[in-house]
């Protein structure tokens, strides 16, 4: 039987992993072979990604494959969106890529709308939610600051493309990741020259867009030798991690909403056409690019970031809680004591997350959380209510009825939250795969190798290889009504 093996690198803002996916007949198996930490790095008041650290970790995984004689068919890389590296005319990486959590773009969209193009026009052209860290605003602000790497740059490469470039020496601009930049027209799927001009950069800064499944090139000779894996192709997968995750929703029909749950909670629907309307503009929903030319109509909700940051703080105090311990502590506490709006600007990158949560509660006349369990409860309940709010809007605009919510990504492992969400949204929650991003990444490689033909076949493959868990609502919404009203009052603009 023919066996194909793909190596999927899924690199998030806090950690990265290398997963080997072995395909035989109509099933696949997955094995995580390497995991490493990632994070933003402060240098002279600016925040960067240490791309060389990521590169070295990628090499470690390749060396492991070389040593273990794992014969790879191809490699694919997905990462978070919007950030990019700048390359000089001679191919040199000019600086570490700046990180989207750097506050350098705070207030920049407002300036851009005033001086360059109206907010409505930007939204109509791109369908992308306004977030200050979008590449459009990063580029504009870098220009304003005369940021020297941009002054000298011949090319900008989004992070997955940048890593593929380091591995192969070839440059591409992959569509799903480019779509997060707020520079792409979602109908033509090409860069919008007027937007680039408004940001002050040349249209030649970006390569022509390619679609998931395109071969970027082969590993450089020196890497092939050093790692021992040989001259294997690097595929431009759905380079945006959320697009890879959505590709891996285990479903056979379109009647679903998804929640890609990790550092961010990305909640939306998959559509054939963009939804760009007065309402989507008001609610700041985004139309990012998916595989097979689909649109990911979704909203960013600040997700486990709130808890991840609290956990780091508790760790610094010497208490390294596991998720199981946190949930046990939370279960001892009364529900709905305090709620926050996870998307409030104060949670984007605070000095101290617990202080930010307490401050939010004080400002909204609520009791501040006092124990670890109370913080966890506050975060989970606020997230569940955010999901209900977003789903209510999705139901209004979806061109099809929504029958269930698929929770994919690391958050799918949180049974407590899955059940709470099912109760709060009054729809079944289908949880898993928790490694959806790596699965989507590997399946796009499998498609490039001719093993599957489209996203529906990819999804059938997932269903026959993995079994998602289903949580049906067990409580009436009536019992959440008052708390939900309170939550809505905290999130109204
Ligand atoms: C998730 C994600 C989101 C994007 C955010 C910043 O990892 O890719 O989809 O909005 O990171 O790029």
From TrEMBL:
It holds the Pfam family FGGY_C. CDD domains: ASKHA_NBD_FGGY_RhaB-like. Residues 6-246 form the Carbohydrate kinase FGGY N-terminal domain. The keyword NADP does not apply. The keyword Kinase applies. It comes from the Bacteria. This is Rhamnulokinase. It comes from Parabacteroides faecalis. The lineage of its organism: Bacteria, Pseudomonadati, Bacteroidota, Bacteroidia, Bacteroidales.
